[in-house]
Amino acid sequence: QIIKKTEILEFVNSHLNMDDIGGLENLKRWLRKRNKSWLESAQKYGLPAPKGVLITGVPGCGKSLISKAISAMWQLPLLRLDIGKIFSGIVGSSEENMRKAVQTAEAIAPSILWIDEIEKGFSGLNSSGDGGTASRIFGHFLTWMQEKEKPVFVIATANNISSLPTELLRKGRFDEIFFVDLPTHRERVEIFKVHLQKRLKDPNVTGDFQINDNNLHQLAGLTEGFVGAEIEQVVINGLFEAFYEERSVTLSDFEKICKQFIPLSVTQAEQIKGIRDWA
Ligand code: ATP
């Protein structure tokens, strides 16, 4: 069955490997103990039917990346649901949209349903709620999560879970909730390694620069507070310095960018400080 991209549901084709992701060790370890057949045969072992995981953390820390890598590792189709659009009222009725999304995931089960930025759909709700559409959909979703008969693994990703209903977060709803924090020094070393290895292919561009422990630690030391997406940007901008001057890249190119770059975490901290000072 071919699933075309719709406004709310997108079939994501991924060949990402777990090794393409630096850090996120707890989550990787948890996943490595599980595989595709866990989805189908957990109950034979007297285990509860797999439900899914909720992954939360700052933007750009690899939540989308790992969702794609799970699908590639388990060789299961991945459907990304844009939950914000379900409620936007632009594409059909919200309840019908949600029902179709779930049905599609079940039709191709075993499968993975990735609900990206789940807070955009379910912020501030509860299932008994006000009887409004959003509360009803949330209630149906919880029931489906609890009782689904087809092996559909749900990955919910969120930048901020503080506004999510506690019913969604309580024990037993997801198999596990993972918090992805800003990468540590060691994790930044890994992330730099991933992106430098991915991009430095041409010996003329690489020149004398080496992806060795010394250089990786040097760069990691200059990037405290950077998320993975920002580290990738440092690598790209560093390479651009070399490209602009038509020469091979050097450690100084990357160091220069690290020193110029203000990561979002710092900007946010400054904003909060600014508001505090003002108040
Ligand atoms: P958002 O909440 O904004 O969607 P996210 O947490 O889902 O962010 P990703 O989309 O997974 O972040 O990351 C954006 C890009 O940053 C990735 O495509 C990847 O190139 C890089 N990146 C982020 N985290 C990592 C990581 N841990 N290892 C390697 N690359 C990373």
Automatic annotation (TrEMBL):
List, for all copies, the residue spans of the domain called AAA+ ATPase.
49-184
Top-rank lineage group of the source organism = Bacteria
Q: Which UniProt keywords apply?
A: ATP-binding, Nucleotide-binding
Q: Which family does it belong to?
A: Belongs to the AAA ATPase family. Highly divergent.
In Swiss-Prot or TrEMBL terms, this protein is called Uncharacterized AAA domain-containing protein ycf46
